[in-house]
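Hi D.,

Good news: the full-assembly prediction came through. Inputs first.
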Amino acid sequence: MSPLLRSIFSAEFGFAIFRVMTPLLFAAIGVSISSLAGTINISMEGTMLVSAFIGVLVSAFTESLILALLAGVAAGMAMGAILSYFHLRLKADIILAAIALNLFASGMTVFLLFIASGDKGSSSSLKSLVFPELHIPLIKSIPVLGTIVSGHNIMTYGAILAVVVFYIITFKTPLGLRIRAVGQNPNAAESVGINVNRTRMWALTLSGFFGAFGGLYLSMGYVSWFARDMTAGRGWIAIAAATLGGYMPLGTFLSSLLFGAVNALAIYLASLQFPSELISLIPYLATVIALTIYSARALKKRTYKVEEAKRVGKITDVKESP
Amino acid sequence: VEKFLLKYFTLIRVIIAIAIGIVISVFLIYLISEEPGFSLRSFLLGPFLSRSRLAHVFETASPIIFCGLAIAVAFQAKQFNIGAEGSLYLGAALGTAFGVSTNMPAIIHIPLVLLMAGLSGALWSFIPAILKARWKASELVSSLMLNYVAYFLGLYLMNFHFRDKEAGYLVSYELPESAWLAQFIPGTRIHYGIILALVFALLVYYFLYHTTTGYEIRSTGFNERFARFGGISVFRVIVLCQVILGFLAAFGGMTEVMGIHRRFVWQFSPGYGWDGIIVAIIGRNHPLLIIPASFFLAYLRVGGRVLNLMSDVPAEMITVIQSIIILLITAEAFLSQWKYRVTLRQAERGGAA
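Then the structure:
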């Protein structure tokens, strides 16, 4: 185990964590912002996939990174808007509609990929641009820290910036206040004149906005091509990460970091003599365990509060929390 | 006529959604195909044009019926467990492992292998069930994550411990003949799995609509708090419906292994668990409606395969069409304006008479 331990405690491993965390963090922020409004965006997997594909497609045909970015982000926001239209206007169950959207994304991207490149597996014939890496002057020359923090794809820094943006939107803007109000009690929010549906629509669209960056990073940073179903469950892991982080900026960041570490560990283990199947399942298993621990703690906290309230005599009976 | 329309409003909505889906597929074919007429014919009529293709519809439909029933039981209780795929994969892998390592007369071997697969699947979906019931961990996320875990576990089991090295490609050892489900129509691969699927559809229908436990499952889905108030053990319902889901999905997957491949051949997850979600939605979680829904989906699948083979249109078009159909079906308010107008007219006429 000594070579394994040595590689885990190396600066390269720290670098890998950030690299793997980037798409998860973007997506987890997206899920968080939609969940704060009480409408969880389960279609994050499909959103990332569509953005990843549109980004590659546009960059291959226009050879412009900016256009690819804009198109990818627009596609992600469109996915959020479509979900909100079906859920809020057409009264579809948000989970079922999101499952349908994920299916749509998976099929549509392969369908269009085939039309655009004649290939169904990956876009190797389409030459995609990638987002540049950023070497931070001064910091990059610090021994260990420099290796970990500098030289990342610009999207990785973008993801950390996104945490700040998420914080500002949620706590410093009127929209953020409305989103939180709608999420906590839609009836109360409506009674003070907040348009619940419109707020939720914005939350879902913003969710698609953040998720889009995660998808773009996958196909234009992490690698430089699009492959079918390349998100490989990251949208779902992001949902777990968002839940684990309590839908809050710092919490989402830390839980994404945790999942990034587990994923990076799986990648490192793969280089050892060990059946790759058993290594590949680690991140997914870790997600289930983390989700359960979190849920159990949240439940305990809730039960404790109810017990306390009963003891003090404030309430006599409490309705089941949803 | 209008009364009839109102009575079957839900059904009509489903049919309209399907019609819109088909229209879009026609549009897509005309958009991208060099010979749209030919492509369209291969897609819509292709499945009927040869005996083996028609048989293929039946072969494809049987595991889909099983998975649709599985999902329906859980969805009726509003438990969004989407782990049918994982249960099916791991259950069939463990069933195959049991089947190839044992030898006994067919009359015992067949039910025993099916049961082993079913129980393995049930045990697997017990995990998200108990996590939800005990600690309120979202079954949606955990069952999906467990799908990946099940896939990798099953793949490991088959590739490392039951791989037939003489086969030349990555498959498990062949099941002994005593564990084969017979193909009963000569010249096709239609096997007894389809009969079992239909029997199970009736059983699940009876279970959901004519037993106390079935009633408890449906009430929990309808209103959990009300169900709890009425003395129903919601804990039990949450666990039970998901365990049944795992059992049915794995059982269905095993029939496909025993009836068609006779070994474990899935290097990729076959996707029947996802098809199950689609037919459960199209069939509105009703066990008997899931049968036609499954045949419809199987027809689309086979049509897509013909399209892929004979023309320049990729089969993924089918996935797009499916997703549009489900979106329209789940959209409760879709066509509700029309229903409202018809109801109003009915009421006015009733008032005048």
